[in-house]
Amino acid sequence: MSLGRSSAIIAAGTLASRVTGLLRSMVLVAAIGAFGLANDAFYTANILPNYVFQVISTGVITAVFVPLIVRWSTAEDGGQRQLSKLFTLGTVVMLGVTAVALVAAPLLVSLFSHYSGPQFDLAVAFALWCLPQVFFYGMFALIGETLNARRVFGPYAWTPIVNNIVSIAGFLVFIAIYGGGSMPIEEWDPGSIALLGGTATAGIVAQTIALVIFWRKTGLHLRPDFRWRGMGLGEVRRVATWSIAMLLVGYVVTAVQQQMISTASGENASVTVWQNAWLVFMLPYSLIVMSIGTPYFTRMSEHAAAGRDADVRSDIGTSTRVLGMLIVISAVTLMAAAVPLSRLFATNTAEAEGTATVLIGFLFGLVPMAVLFIIQRAFYAYGDTRTPFFFTAFQAALAVAGALAARALLGDAWVTAGIAFSQAVASLAQVILASWLLRRHLGPLGMLPNVWAIGRFTAAALPAGAAGYAVYLWTGGPGGWMLSGLAGAVAGCVVIGLVCSVIYAALLAVFRAPELSAVTATLRARLPRR
Question: Quick one: which H or E segment has residue 81?
Fold first, then answer.
């Protein structure tokens, strides 16, 4: 399967899953409100499985197992013997990690929040319902990355839709039983806690089961195998140690950020606002970076395994420019539409404007994160997780300093936006250092043309974004129809997006950007001929 077709399949699935994910978040806001102590308690508890899972997924599966699976696939049996051992080991590890997480639920809540009294108790109660997601998240990633490594890209991107559908149904049941809007902490009982937390976990279970259905496409027939000796655990342990250490450093940053934000729980600087802004921020990252970058990572791993360094450098340059063309306009467009977008997760204009400032702070880091995705995966393709640890530790130090400075210098209404912006600045510094370190490993990367390309994209995107924001102001701004309700917000986002996209494409055509010509040629080749 070609990279273009693979990226298209992943992009379509990611778009569908992210759109249904936005609907899921909107229904959740209708169920428990946009602000409040109980809201923050649930959001904190429900994000804990993701923190634990990321150590396993990004720290081990992506960094270690994908290159190994690609290498094992060249064996005579297609890697079935080694993969049987790997899946048996993975299942045991996931069960163990989940059990430890459940026992440590109070500790995890205290690490990632500044709650006390009834709010802390409610967060722990939610965590006990949500933390079983760790096992199913882990198996979902292990199965999905195996499918990706075998060039079966679609299911991993599409099956999260199942999670969103199950969650939406559960939240609607919650609304039918308990009504919508924020509930005071004292009104939460075991039944309402179980329904909300259980719904969140049921969605993850459902998406994992849905992914298993597609396993036959790998052509592999695995069986339990506890004979782990000889499967290269020494190499796995060496690589995974650095990768897990890198993730743990990241969690120090997350813990500090969440502690600083949760000191103003229930206000504009709430955990709920942070999570909703992050959800919107991750939409273009997931849709563009993951869909285009994932097939390139598989190809980079193949080229690295074959010792074809020149091809790896070519992959880095091509993917960076393609990502840059799409991600720059995404960041600028989301900034222009930040308030209408935020209205989807708010009950009034004031809440939308508060969330929009946090979203804009995040968006300054979208382009650096996109470039970092490619640079980091290049290290992973060579089995190097030691170097990424050091440039991640560098970013972590900057992000922690930024979070502490934001809490000290800004008021409650601005602290979350300040922390989001400081993270963006730290990401920019990180990608500069990471690129320099990769150049030491691979030689000249030819990054200057990439920098010029991103500069050209930015020059075209800024006027487009200004025009989009002018449309928002022309329709009345904070008092206009775009913020009158959910329908107006959706329509406003569509209008602003169309204005920005058309102007951006026109300016790129004026600049004769070769990347635009390549995309246009690809689209023409796919259109049916008369």
Answer: helix 80-103
Burial of 184: CB neighbours in 10 Å, binned 0-12, 13-18, 19+:
exposed
Q: CA 77 to CA 19: how far, in whole Å?
A: 40
Q: Which two tokens stand for residue 237?
A: 């342990």
| Residues 236, 379 contacting (CB under 8 angstroms) | no
- In which residue are the tokens 């026109």 written? 506
Residues 6+ apart with CB under 8 A from 10: 153, 154, 156, 157, 290, 291, 292, 294, 295
d(CA 5, CA 14): 14
More confident residue, 239 or 368: 368
- Residue-wise pLDDT for 320-358, tens only, equals 787 888 889 999 999 999 999 888 877 777 778 878 888
Which residues are CB-neighbours of 507 under 8 A, at least 6 positions away? Answer: 459, 460, 463, 464
Residue 96 corresponds to which amino acid?
A: G
Position 24, amino acid: R
With residue 30 as reference, give the H or E element that holds it: helix 3-32
Distance of CA 476 to the CA centre of its chain: 33
Q: How far is CA 258 from CA 269, 353, 420, in A?
A: 10, 21, 11
375: pLDDT strictly greater than 90 = no
Structure tokens at 342: 């935020």
- Between CA 51 and CA 11 the distance in angstroms is 25
**Residue 494 corresponds to which tokens in the numbers above?**
């569509």
Q: Per residue in 260-286, pLDDT tens?
A: 887 655 555 567 777 778 878 888 877
- CA angle 159/160/165 to nearest 5° reads 105
pLDDT in tens, 392-431: 889 889 999 998 998 888 877 788 888 989 989 998 999 8
Which of 488, 469, 490 shows the shortest CA–CA distance to 480? 488
